[in-house]
Structure formats: structure tokens, C-alpha cells
């Protein structure tokens, strides 16, 4: 890539500061593109990332969501720059997208001399730990500022912007201020349905896997129908269990759609907001939420121990040597089933970050959306730039943007478009602040 003579360092804050919670693919997509923009001499925000564990931590055993040995459910070619279309500075789109190729999955493989092998092996989806190494490589190459610590408080600053307080591994409380806040990640993976040794949260399950302490069971259950449950099930079938039930509200275990027509909706969200709301929710339900990847489904087809039980788990209790689950289905009487091992793989809580907001910030959020912040209300208020409409200081919530802006934003399907929208918003808002300061100074 040819560097512009006017190259600037994003750490100089040419378009303010963007604080990101979570050092995963979304954070790195934004940070890498900000680096490219700065290298071209274009306005770009300083990006500061705060993560509890490490870059790519949720793709490693230490993050509690995987053992790192299962395969990515999405093609790695949908990398941090995909779909390489458009840019925060539209007149420089070709240059910016060319610059992002330096942070592509292919460039990572070339840099590690494994590209030929990957091609010759049929371009397999990488294991989670390899995907984490790709993210670590991008972080090092882009020079993004990463701070390791557990976020303990998020608040709107009196003078505008956001202040994020976090505790470092050695116990020191520190803070970082930004003009905008981007929240990524699924939150904690250690919240089981029932505090019982026979009920494993996602984190406890993978810890048990790493220690080779998954107990033998006659009747095991995995609660959940999404990719978190799919990975847990893909692992559980390798252990001793006479039967394994997958419990989800859907009538069956759906396979993620991988045709051109389904994929294109994720890659190009241009026409998504024009679809009627029921159709949008139907697409998400059929292709993203509560579905297993094709590769996992293929692995499970031949195993006759696996069965599906329809229902939403509303209660769990210990009953002798078993755990009894209460299952509800619309229009039907509740039923109960007992298991001797339960893996609660329903995934993270979408609104986990609200627990970190102080009271005043929660009040401001409620005023902005005109209602108490619940999942459906927040989903419906996400604007084109992936922020909560109505808040003076931008709060970017791509994980909640699927319904309003496109199903690819919460996952790995259009990280390049996600970074376009976030960075364009940051640059435009910085220009407005600068103009306002100029007017006040006159």
C-alpha cells in the first residue's frame, strides 16, 4: 500500500476518540480501517479497545465460549474488510478497500506462509484459536491501543461523550473517555440456568472439556438452537452419553441457509430496512437465530443418540440424581423432562452492558428511546449508523442492529460495512463538533 505524505497517526485523534468494549472482530475491523484512513491522510478517530482477556479472547479457551478447537461457522474470507464495498470517505473508497486487503485473511495466511496449504486443503474454515491469531495479527499490524481490564462502569460524561471505568488484572481502577462508544461481544458465558453441578454454563462446560472432566451421562441435554449450542453439541457427542437432547423453541433444528440468496441479504443490507418488519424477523429466525451451521449438522447426522425436544425452558430444579426441566410450548400444557447432565448454551444476554450503566445514563437512554430499554425497543431504535437514535453521544450497538439495519451486523457477515458506518459516523460527528466550536469561538 502506498502511504500518503500527509499520513497521520490515529492516536492523535483526528476525528475524536472511539472507545470499544471487546477486542473481537468488530473492534479490529474498525481499528484496522481507521489505521488505513489515517495512513491515507484522511480524518480517522483514535480507537481505544478495552477487553477483559486479550485480543480475540472469546475465540480462545480463556474467554469461556469455546475450547478453541472447533471450527468457525462463517467462511474466513468474510474477513475484517468484507464485502470491500463503499468506505467512510466515499471518494477514497478504492484506496481504503485496497488498504484493507493488507489486513485480509489471505494476507494473514501469506504472512505466515500457510496460504498454499489452506488452498490445497479446500479452504476449510479455521479453528477458533486460528481465527484468534488472525485478530492478534491485525491488532499488532494496525497498532491499535488495547487495554486489558474488566469494565465495571459506563456513564455519559457531563461534557459529552462516554467514560468507561475498568479494573486491570492487578486490581487498579482506570478509565478512558471517548466521544463515541462501541459495545461488542456477548457478555458473560458463566450464567447457568441453575446453580447445580449437573447444570453447566457455557464457560463451565468448556472448562470441564479442557480438564477432561465431562461426566458420563445416560441422558444429557443441550439447551439452545444457535451456534453456541452447536459447538457444545459438536463436542458433547465425543463423550460418553447414551442420549443427547437438543432443547429449543423451534419445531426442529434448522440449518443455516448458505445459498446465494440468503448470503446476499447478510453481505448487502442496502434494501433491508425497506422490508416489512414481520419479514425481517422471519429472515433472521430462519437464517441466523436458532440455526446450526452446515458443517456441524453434517457432523451430527449419523449420530443416532441425538434428538430434538421442542420447548422453552422456564424452570429447572434438582430432583434426586437428576435435573428436571420445565418446558413450555405456546398453546400447550407445560411438560417436564429429567436429565443427568444439562448444558445451558442459550448464549449471552443481549443487554448485558446495561448492568454497567450508572443510574443517570440509564435515565438518559430511557428518555432517548421513549421507553424502558428492553431488547425489542432497543432493536427498533438502531439507526443507519448503528447508534441508538436520540442519544446526543453516539452509542454503537451492532449486536442489536440485525432487525433494523441488516442481519449481518451482529455476526461476521459484513464487518467491512459495519466499520464503514461506524467510522463515517465518527468522522461526520467530529466535523459537526469542530464547526460548533468554531462558531462559539467567534
TrEMBL record:
Its EC number is 1.14.13.59. Keywords: FAD, Flavoprotein, Monooxygenase, NADP, Oxidoreductase. Signal peptide: none annotated. Pathway: Siderophore biosynthesis; mycobactin biosynthesis. It is an enzyme of class 1 (oxidoreductase). It comes from the Bacteria. One of its GO terms (molecular function) is monooxygenase activity. It catalyses: L-lysine + NADPH + O2 = N(6)-hydroxy-L-lysine + NADP(+) + H2O. The keyword Flavoprotein applies. Its cofactor is FAD. The keyword Phosphoprotein does not apply. Belongs to the lysine N(6)-hydroxylase/L-ornithine N(5)-oxygenase family. This is L-lysine N6-monooxygenase MbtG. It comes from Gordonia hydrophobica.
